[in-house]
């Protein structure tokens, strides 16, 4: 078994668009140690983050952050420890399209 520590994904989603930040590759598991969010816009934003097991359709039960406010120019770090299996997906959302997301962790294959 090999473990790789890396940036799992980065995304700056368009306004009101649920967007994939990271999908666990086949024959791999992952541990997400942190998710960083940065609002680069000139206005406040609200963000959402969900984990979709096995790439399931997005439902409200999958969110662990929902309509969280983030001020203009601010950042948020979520120290996660989220374990993910093959094909699990992190989905992100920005109301105004002014926030960018980065996920960091390890992949085990």
Description:
This protein has 109 residues and is mostly beta strands. The protein has one domain: Jelly Rolls (Sandwich). Helix content is 0%, strand content 61%. The strands form 2 sheets. A 4-stranded antiparallel β-sheet has the order 1-8-3-6, with no helix packed on it. 27% of the residues are buried.
What attributes characterize this protein structure?
109 residues, single chain, Jelly Rolls, four-stranded antiparallel β-sheet
For this structure, the quaternary state is: single chain
DSSP E strands, number? 8
> Unreliable stretches, pLDDT < 50, 5 or more residues?
none
Rounded mean pLDDT score: 97
Q: Which word captures the global form? A: globular
Report the sheet with the most strands, covering strand number, pairing sense and barrel closure: 4 strands, antiparallel
In terms of structural class, how would the helical and strand content be classed? mainly beta
Order of strands, main sheet, comes to: 1-8-3-6
Number of domains: 1
Query: H/E element string?
Result: EEEEEEEE
């Amino acid at each position: 078994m090999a473990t790789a520590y890396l940036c799992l994904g980065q995304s700056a989603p368009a306004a009101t668009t649920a967007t994939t930040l990271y999908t666990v590759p086949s024959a791999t598991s992952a541990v997400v140690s942190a998710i960083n969010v940065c609002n680069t816009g000139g206005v406040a934003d609200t963000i959402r983050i969900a984990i979709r097991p096995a790439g399931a359709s997005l439902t409200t039960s999958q969110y662990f952050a929902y309509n969280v406010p983030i001020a203009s120019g601010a950042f948020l770090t979520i120290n996660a420890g989220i374990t993910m299996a093959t094909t699990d997906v992190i989905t992100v959302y920005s109301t105004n399209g002014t926030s960018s997301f980065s996920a960091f962790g390890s992949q085990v294959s």
